[in-house]
Amino acid sequence: MGKRFENKIAVVTGAGGTLCSEIALQLSLEGAKVFLVGRTMDKLEKTAEKILAAGGVPPTAVSCDVTDEKAVEDLAQLVHGAGGCDFLINGAGGNNQKAMPTITRFDPKELTGELPEGQKGLYDIDIAAFRSVLDINTMGTVIPLLAFSKQMIAKGSGSVVNFASMNSFCPLTRCFAYAMSKAAVCNLTQSFAAYFAPAGIRINAVAPGFMVNERSKNYLGTVEEGLTPRGQQVIGHTPMGRFGEARDLTGCVKWLLDDEASGFVTGITVPVDGGFLTLGGV
Ligand SMILES: NC(=O)c1ccc[n+]([C@@H]2O[C@H](COP(=O)([O-])OP(=O)(O)OC[C@H]3O[C@@H](n4cnc5c(N)ncnc54)[C@H](OP(=O)(O)O)[C@@H]3O)[C@@H](O)[C@H]2O)c1
Q1: Would the pLDDT of 12 be above 80?
Q2: What is the 136 CA–ligand 1 centroid distance (Å)?
Q3: What's the confidence (pLDDT) of residue 215?
């Protein structure tokens, strides 16, 4: 019997990152030819090396900013030449410290410039950074979706997985731009799913809970070596009592991609969160 995704072509954006490097690896091991997409070639090449070392289908790494329509169009031409896209994983995204205050509630001192050294209120954030967070998480999903859905239409089927967040459902403190953009990801997943259903394209999202990566180790700590106060809040609110790993996501992504397994599923966002959303925090 062939592999589950043999002869499928998958475009994975954010493939140099923690979560989507693992997803790209797992899809390659299931027989898919993967296009690894991100801005930094070094990171993509590391993912490609991991895939080759594990015996996956040799991938193609392409440096591309997913918010740049022309760059995404060029990428789409390349993928078209290879046979066209079956699966799109819109993993590129993220937050930016410059778009975040350091304090969690309004303080009148932010109006008079009297916050303690190093503290930043909402009025002190960088609006260009705020805008760029909205852009990467929303237009960085929409632009690839528009480019690659054309190839899926030509094939008569396709599946897209977007990346939402716990912030999509209820914002965390200080994450203004990130939270509103990830809420938009759930919403656009629904509207695009409805629009493209007649073309045989299914569009869903995953909402990862708190997953381990180098950044999270700094601001949340680790269960084994000690948690920061914010890390304690997260773990206290996660019934499974641990952070997620990239591999916790892969089964869900594969399920959403596979027509045999989820062929009547479209427009949903699946939390993969150790139960974070089950509790109200009290
Ligand atoms: N980790 C978590 O706990 C968590 C939780 C909920 C949701 N998520 C979401 O899951 C996705 C993956 O997260 P992650 O933890 O794997 O993040 P990550 O390690 O930072 O990976 C994200 C990747 O996206 C790429 N990227 C950013 N902007 C881009 C752009 N304009 N064009 C192309 N590529 C771009 C980055 O590479 P370059 O900088 O080289 O372009 C980076 O490798 C993100 O959407 C994130 O918001 C993560």
Answers
A1: yes
A2: 9
A3: 83
Q: Is any atom of ligand 1 closer than 6 Å to the C-beta of 243?
A: no
The predicted structure's pLDDT at residue 213 = 86
Rounded percentage of the chain residues whose pLDDT exceeds 70: 100
Phi, psi of 132 (to 5 degrees): -70, -30
Dig out the tokens for 62 from the structure.
Answer: 């392409």
Kindly list the structural domains of the chain, giving each domain's residue range(s) and its CATH number in brackets, ordered by start.
9-100+130-209+246-272 (3.40.50.720), 213-243 (no CATH)
Helix (H, G, I), strand (E, B) or coil at 168: helix
- Taking each continuous run of H as one helix and of E as one strand, the counts in the chain are 11, 9
Q: Tell me: the pLDDT tens digits for 18-68?
A: 999 999 999 999 999 999 999 999 999 999 999 999 999 999 999 999 999
Walk across the sheet containing 158-163 and list its strands: 60-63, 33-38, 9-13, 87-90, 158-163, 201-208, 269-272
Instruction: Give the phi and the psi of residue 73 in degrees, each rounded to 5.
Output: -65, -40
Alpha helix locations (H) across the chain? Answer: 18-29, 41-54, 69-81, 109-112, 127-134, 140-155, 176-196, 214-220, 229-236, 247-257, 259-262
**Structure tokens, 83:** 């046979």
Please indicate whether residue 219, judged by its CB atom, sits closer than 6 Å to ligand 1. Answer: no
Other Cβ atoms closer than 10 A to 181: 27
